[in-house]
Amino acid sequence: MSALDLSRWQFGITTVYHFLFVPITLGTSFLVAIMQTMWVRTGDSSWLRLTKFFGKIFLINFAMGVVTGIVQEFQFGMNWSDYSRFVGDIFGAPLAVEGLLAFFLESTFLGMWIFGWDRLPKKLHLASIWLAAIGTTLSAYFILAANAFMQHPVGFHINPVTHRAEMDDFLRLLTQNTAVIAYLHTMSAAFLLSGTLIAAVSAFHMVRGSNSSIFRKTLKLGAVVTLVAGAAVGWTGDADSKIMVTQQPMKMAAAEALYHTESNAGFSLFTVGTLDGSQSVLDVKVPNLLSFLATGDMNGEVKGINNLETEYTSTYAGTGLKGADFAPNIPITYWMFRLMIGLGMIAVLWALWLLWMIRGGREPKGKLVYRSAVWMTFAPLFGISAGWIFTEMGRQPWIVFGQMLTAQGVSPVITSFDVLVSMVIFTLLYGVLAVIEMGLLIKTVKQGLPEASDVKVVEGNQPLTFAY
Fold it and tell me: Which of 88, 93, 239 is nearest to 172 (CA)?
């Protein structure tokens, strides 16, 4: 394999692995803040124990997310130096703000929350977890704004001397519709995952009969959040699809394996294509649904892969690419799109089923509830991963759409051996971290709620003092 192919594999492996922890952190931080708020408002010690319990799960994932995220930055310089040189003036601003403002905000106040239980007044300590949660969302927004430039570059010009992209409008970069809808869609998915996680852990303990009355509170909280987030995922996903049709029509065509432009395009439920992905052999569709989802009109026109290949060959003649070179990997794009939707829907239906199981004070019982609670968190987790694979693979062959090909962004002096060695090391290291992560999570979940006597907090509103 070439250095380009290996570099793509390495970045894909490390990015997907890193993002396993990010959405759990994004959503769970707010849910833990809600639990602590309930304790402060009601004085019910069960909410405090729940805060401590789920807060520990949140912290494990936060730590793993930070450790695995650092690797991403090094790869920009090692594997993708030409890409970094091209977009450095654009990426520098949002990533600097993310590091200097958002990350320091979340890490500082998260530190106050971790070590301030028996040192800070209740309300000040509560404010620290809310500020940490807000910091995580700000961090996500700036990163997604930078990624949105790769999907739809705006607010820049190409310097004819240096051949680099230079920023003209930072505000436009941050507020373009691609960035806004990607953020809303990502946050909705994060709450879907976190709600499912909290409901699953709660259901697991309720079936085991441990602190059933207490875990009923978080089971309801998690299930309701999952349902609301599921509706938000659907709405933002629909809006994102409509934007995608206008900005990256090839990605939408590949997601539906639509080879020819249609004015009443059907939504593909299942398709079998040729091995090279050049055409479909069998396709089961819902008539007119794709046209409606893509354009808001049942008879709206959706461009097909073959038509777009001809159009792109003319538009981007200077790239040297033509025809099928402009189409992404159709099978991967098609099936990742369906996994993203399907696994998310499974989580929503499961949350609805859980609420039905506990209606009227009933207790969830049986092996089906127990086993589904153990495995259900993986459904939205893998669904989110499939969504990111679809987003990035569907943009190919572009690393910055319409401006720079992925093949042009790889470091010119790096060799296949260099990338292979680092990829093997990273993969093994991440495998070890995965074992540690799962071990810590399983141990934490099985331990259950901390005893009330083990929970230490500052009582009353004691003033802060400084020591010199």
Answer: 93
